[in-house]
């Protein structure tokens, strides 16, 4: 039988281990990816340098299929959707939009070749908050929506880019299918023209100088919640504490959203841009970095693997008492 002192030591150890499960972020954030498109989407995942990676970097998601992924503590990176993907006779995998150039379904550390709609995350950033956004800085290829689940915060709300921007894309930004009959993506002005005033570079590298262009305004009118250019922070960054996230490709439009999209299509500003089409690979500058305060004391309890691990340790230590 355990002596009182031994029991006290064991109880102290138990409390230490359980508290560290919370403080160290073992209880993971869960991302659920859902495909509501009428076609298969191949999600790509890129982890920012210097943080632990998600276990998968790419997979196929059939129509109406969902997949759940657990992210490591303090993860930072981006999700996007690849479309019109196939393998050639040699087995090389490639996609018409959002391709990551790996030659395989897994992106293996490579990001999306723009244009591509991006969902960007920094978990457990400043003040223990998650920061997330949808970005069109690299252009647009399909509609996306990020919905926090179970989180808290004044700005913990859904952000979406809903509808088919490809159909309203100006001709000088449009990416078409091989046969030229279908618009499959829409470039950003930076990608298309490679000019400082569109890329917020050189003499335009500060928010005081780099202002929205007619092109970025088209993106903003269509997707008010999303980043339309590099310094579009005020209306485009969202924060939550203790949330999981649902990422939906081609989210369905409500009646009011359909009406809004129709109005946006007919009231887009005139285009006065100059320049030809560009081919540069533009990674974008709106990604949130992984810096910030230490992990919040209270971490949400949604990571099923972490919960199982906590329960197992609890039972084992309890049996020692």
From TrEMBL:
Pfam families: Thaumatin. Coiled coil: none annotated. Residues 254-277 are annotated as: Disordered. The keyword ATP-binding does not apply. Disulfide bonds join 37-250, 85-95, 100-107, 156-240, 161-223, 169-186, 190-199, 200-210. InterPro entries: Osmotin/thaumatin-like_sf, Thaumatin, Thaumatin_CS. Residues 1-28 form the signal peptide. Keywords: Disulfide bond, Signal. The keyword Repeat does not apply. SUPFAM superfamilies: Osmotin, thaumatin-like protein (SSF49870). Residues 254-268 have a biased composition (Low complexity). This is Thaumatin-like protein 1b. The lineage of its organism: Eukaryota, Viridiplantae, Streptophyta, Embryophyta, Tracheophyta.
